[in-house]
Every structure is written in C-alpha cells, then in structure tokens.
C-alpha cells in the first residue's frame, strides 16, 4: 500500500507544553507534511515489530450505555485477547466522544454544565467496561487536553496541505446524527401521531433542519479517485463484504466537499478552529482524531507508537464516517490508513429496532448480573450480527447457556476429570502410539487436530460465530465419544485400564484445547477451567492449543500432575435471576 510516513525524525521538542507555538507555525507544518513519504512497510523490515492496534468507536455520552456499546467493546476485546494469545503486543483503545450540540443539549436537560455531564456519563461507560472485563489499554476522552492539541495539530496539517477552505453551507443538518446531509439523502415523512410533516435523513431516520451558515470545508471531492483505488487495492479492508459494497457505492455515486466546522454561535462545546475562534471543529473530525491521539500524535519522532490502526471495530451506522471521511482526512494529512474496518450490525428485539419508546432497550449491566459476564460475552460473540442484525432474546441466552456452556462444556469437564473414573486425579497419559489412531478415536482426533486452524481462519475473517461453533462441535464430539465408549463399564476391568486412560485423555484433551481457544471470549471462566486442569500459566498460549501439547506429557509420569477439584464450585451453575 502506498501509505506514508516521515523520512526524517520529527524534532524531539514536540510536547503538549509547546504545541501551541507549533500550531501557529505554518512553515513548520508544511515542512513536516512534505517529509512524509516513507512506505509504512518499514515496520516489516526493521527490528521494531509494530504492535497490533485495535479500537472501538468512542461512544457518544448523550445517554447511558446500551447493549450495542457492549457488543462493540466485547468484539474488540476478544480480538485483543486473541492476538495476545498468539504472542502479539496489542494496543486497545476505547473511550467517549464528549463534544457537540447534542451533548450540550443533554447537559442542559440534566441541569448540569457540559463537563460535569460528560464526566458523569463517561464514568458509566468505564463502569460497564470494567464489569464486562474489557481489557483496554487506553480510555480516551475528547475533552482531554492531549486530544484537543492533536485536533488542532491535525487541522493545521490539512489547512497547510491545501485541503481546507472557507465557504458557505446551505443544506440539511441533523443534530441527532451530528451530520450534514445533501438533499438527495433526505426525505419528507408525516408523523403518524401529530400528522405533522417533517424531513428526515434516509440513512438514519433522524430529523434534519435546513441550515445556512458560513463554515470551513474539506476538499473531499478531490479524494474520490484515491478512495476508489484504495478499495480496489484492498478488497478486504472493509468487512463484511456487504459493508464494503455500500462504501464503494457511496464513493462511486460522487463525493461533495464536506463542512468540517460550525459557527461558534451555534456550537461552542467543542474545539476551536486554530486561528479562528468564531468557528468550532466539526464533531466528527474531532472524534475521529482520537485514534491518533491514543498513539501520542503528533509524534515526537518517526516511531508512530503503533499507528496505523489494524482493526477499527465500529457499528454499521457510523460506517461512512470511518470508511469515507476518515481515510480521506488521513490521505490529506499524508498518514497511513487503517488496515481493516469491521462494521458490525445491530441488535434488534423481535426483529424491531431497540428504542426507549418501544420499551425494549436492554440494560447490559443487568443482563451480566443475571447470566454472568462470560455468558453474555459468549452470547454476543456467538449470535451477534456481523453482516446482518442479531436478534436479542433472553430465551436464546438461556438456551446457549443450557446447551453449550453447561450441557456440553460443563458436562465434559465434569465427566473427564471425575474422581469416580480417576480416583487419583492424575492427568491421564497420552496414547502410546499417536501415529496409529484407533478407528474409535479417529473422528475426535482429527477434529482436535484441525480445530486451532479453523478457529484462527474464522477469527481472521471476523466470523466469530463460525469459529466458536467449531469449538463446540469438537466438544459435542468428545461428549459423544465419551458416551459411546462407556468408561464407567470398563473402570473395574484391569484389562481395560489403557482403554479407560485413552477415553479420559481424549476427553480432557478436548477440554484443554477448547479452554485455551475460548480464552479471548470467556477469559474468567476459561482461567478457572484451566486452573482445574492444572495447566501452567505459560502453557495457555495459542501454540499449546494443539493435540498432545498439554501438561508436559513426556514427564507426566514423574511429575504426577493432578487435576484440582472444587466440589462446591460448579463451572456453569444454575441461574439465579435478579428481578
């Protein structure tokens, strides 16, 4: 990819204290941006290995978090843990978007000043993510000074590269979406209750108002061909494919220049445009720059601290901002583009959009209290919509828990380490001749052999439900194998000792491999499971998710590794629902 970095070191005196002086130095900005021409692939040839950089969107704080916010966070967190399991260093950022007219209006309704309101709601997102075991490395807030500095610096880059001009906007604006819309993207409807006619945005269904104002514009139209080429050269940059096709259609239909500021008289809760205090930076440009802020932008030297983003995890409703506007902004600033954008679908209930007016909004903290954190994480990853919307149901959560977690995995754990069949609790030794697979063992053996690669393939393709289904197919096969071989009938026959050992080994080996592979999605429960199996902490990585790699089997007879039983603690107990 022809993406760009500086060929020389940025001066090492750049920091938050003296950035304001740099912001007013036009010649300096031009000098920096004109230097940015080294291909991004320098990372691949240098001794320094770029960390994986994964992001959620930063969440708008006009209201408390809902299940869709949790879904984005769980996807990103599962990906973060998946890459860590494979030995990568990972940067994982999330946070809150705290500027804009909608925030100011929400604060006024709550009789609070905007900053106090943002502090309160942002803390709710942190609380949710802490409860959900979201292991972010950075929680960014757009009201932080470091972010305001980054926004002003980025603006100056665009301005001095010639991509910003002052103009006059005449068209539609949605306060709810914080977005400008062309006439072709709005329609008139009639309110079914009041019979009043109103205009709405066809993409979001939110009301729009006719607006005439002077503001700054970004030359988006100049990037139409560049964006087309970007998509042609990177056919998997936007996933799933139906979202890629949407973006391609938007670009093919033509791009108009984009308003990227609003008059201060209409919007004063935001970042002032550098050298023009009468204008406020458009909230979406402000928000998107958070991904750079997290890496320490503007960088004090040519170490980009993990940039570019490897995976943006976003909801489908903000796809245009991330897959059209954001790449164009970065191109204009001569910065490397995101490697992948995953635009997941939404959650509905009974096939209807969740909304307060319908009374079908799901409280994510309550459902985690009811069903358990890892249960909800598993449900979201297994049944959540990527290409198409997922339909939320408490009953479906119970079915997944009863059939998959308790009925399959929990059952296999209990029977494979049962003291009734293995009174010593010593880990069974591997079959003596792994190269000669008995017919009765073959199905399970080959499923376990192929399992890590199948899971890896589907996680790489963002097909999380498919990857998880292969794990539970293997667990179901192991339960069938256990039942068919009836070890409880053989346990007292001395001549069948090796047969019983093999049955127990294959069963518990399925549990071990599955436990390692499920760690990204269910980190707490799988840690507990692997503890019970006596798996050392340094043997829980991806390389150990292979048949025969557990428990240091060559020395097993000498070490006598034992399972850890806790009869009082069931891995997946019955629900005790809160009211």
From TrEMBL:
Q: Give the record's GO biological process terms.
A: methionyl-tRNA aminoacylation
**Limits of the Methionyl-tRNA synthetase anticodon-binding domain:** 435-543
Keywords from UniProt, A to Z, are:
Aminoacyl-tRNA synthetase, ATP-binding, Ligase, Nucleotide-binding, Protein biosynthesis
Q: Which Pfam families match?
A: Anticodon_3, tRNA-synt_1g
Which EC numbers characterise this protein's activity in its record?
Answer: 6.1.1.10
Asked whether the keyword RNA-binding is assigned, the reply is no
- Glycoprotein is among the record's keywords: no
Tell me which residues make up the Methionyl/Leucyl tRNA synthetase domain. 52-416
Would you tell me the Gene Ontology cellular component terms? mitochondrion
Q: Which reaction does it catalyse?
A: tRNA(Met) + L-methionine + ATP = L-methionyl-tRNA(Met) + AMP + diphosphate
Q: PANTHER family this protein is in?
A: METHIONINE--TRNA LIGASE, MITOCHONDRIAL (PTHR43326:SF1), METHIONYL-TRNA SYNTHETASE (PTHR43326)
Family listed: Belongs to the class-I aminoacyl-tRNA synthetase family.
Q: What is this protein called?
A: Probable methionine--tRNA ligase, mitochondrial
Annotated source species: Rhizophagus irregularis (strain DAOM 197198w)
């Amino acid at each position: 990819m022809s993406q760009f970095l500086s060929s020389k070191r940025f001066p090492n005196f750049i920091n938050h204290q003296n950035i304001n002086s740099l912001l007013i130095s036009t010649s300096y900005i031009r000098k920096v941006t004109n230097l940015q021409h080294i291909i991004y692939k320098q990372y691949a040839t240098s001794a320094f290995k770029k960390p994986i950089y994964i992001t959620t969107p930063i969440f708008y704080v006009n209201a408390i978090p809902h299940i869709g916010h949790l879904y984005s966070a769980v996807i990103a967190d599962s990906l973060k843990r998946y890459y860590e399991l494979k030995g990568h260093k990972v940067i994982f950022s999330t946070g809150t978007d705290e500027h804009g007219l909608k925030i100011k209006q929400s604060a006024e309704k709550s009789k609070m000043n905007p900053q106090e309101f943002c502090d309160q709601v942002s803390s709710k997102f942190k609380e949710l993510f802490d409860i959900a075991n979201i292991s972010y490395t950075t929680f960014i807030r757009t009201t932080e000074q470091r972010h305001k500095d980054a926004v002003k610096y980025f603006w100056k880059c665009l301005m001095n590269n010639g991509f910003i001009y002052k103009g006059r906007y005449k068209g539609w604006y949605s306060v709810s979406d914080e977005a400008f819309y062309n006439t072709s993207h709005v329609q008139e409807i009639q309110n079914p209750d009041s019979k009043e006619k109103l205009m709405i945005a066809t993409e979001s269904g939110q009301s729009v108002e006719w607006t005439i104002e002077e503001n700054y514009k970004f030359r988006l139209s100049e990037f139409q061909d560049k964006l087309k080429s970007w998509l042609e050269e990177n056919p998997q940059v936007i996933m799933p494919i139906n979202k890629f096709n949407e973006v391609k259609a938007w670009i093919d239909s033509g791009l108009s220049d984009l308003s990227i500021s609003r008059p201060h008289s209409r919007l004063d809760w935001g970042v002032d445009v550098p050298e023009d205090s009468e204008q406020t930076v458009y909230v979406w440009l402000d928000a998107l720059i958070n991904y750079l802020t997290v890496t320490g932008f503007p960088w004090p030297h040519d170490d980009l601290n993990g940039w570019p983003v490897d995976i943006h995890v976003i909801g489908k409703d903000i796809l245009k901002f991330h897959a059209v506007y954001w790449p164009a902004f970065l191109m204009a600033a001569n910065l490397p583009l995101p490697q992948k954008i995953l635009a997941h679908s939404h959650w509905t209930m009974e096939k209807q959009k969740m909304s307060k007016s319908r009374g079908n909004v799901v409280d994510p903290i309550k459902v985690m209290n009811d069903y358990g954190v890892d249960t909800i994480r598993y449900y979201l990853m297994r049944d959540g919509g990527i290409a198409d919307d997922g339909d939320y149901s408490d009953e479906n959560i119970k079915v997944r828990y009863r059939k998959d977690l308790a009925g399959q995995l929990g059952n296999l754990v209990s029977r494979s380490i049962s003291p009734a069949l293995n009174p010593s609790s010593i880990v069974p030794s591997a079959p003596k001749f792994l190269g000669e697979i008995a017919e009765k063992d073959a199905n399970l053996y080959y499923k376990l052999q192929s399992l890590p690669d199948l899971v890896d393939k589907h996680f790489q393709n963002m097909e999380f439900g498919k990857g998880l289904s292969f794990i539970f197919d293997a667990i179901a096969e192991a339960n069938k194998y256990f039942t068919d071989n009836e070890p409880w009938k053989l346990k007292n026959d001395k001549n069948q000792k090796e047969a019983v050992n093999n049955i127990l080994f294959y069963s518990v080996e399925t549990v071990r491999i599955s436990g390692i592979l499920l760690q990204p999605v269910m980190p707490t429960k799988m840690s507990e499971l692997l503890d019970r199996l006596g798996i050392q902490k340094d043997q829980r990585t991806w390389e150990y998710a292979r048949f025969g790699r557990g428990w240091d089997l060559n020395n097993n007879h000498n070490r006598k590794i034992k399972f850890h039983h806790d009869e009082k603690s069931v891995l997946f107990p019955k629900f005790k629902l809160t009211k």
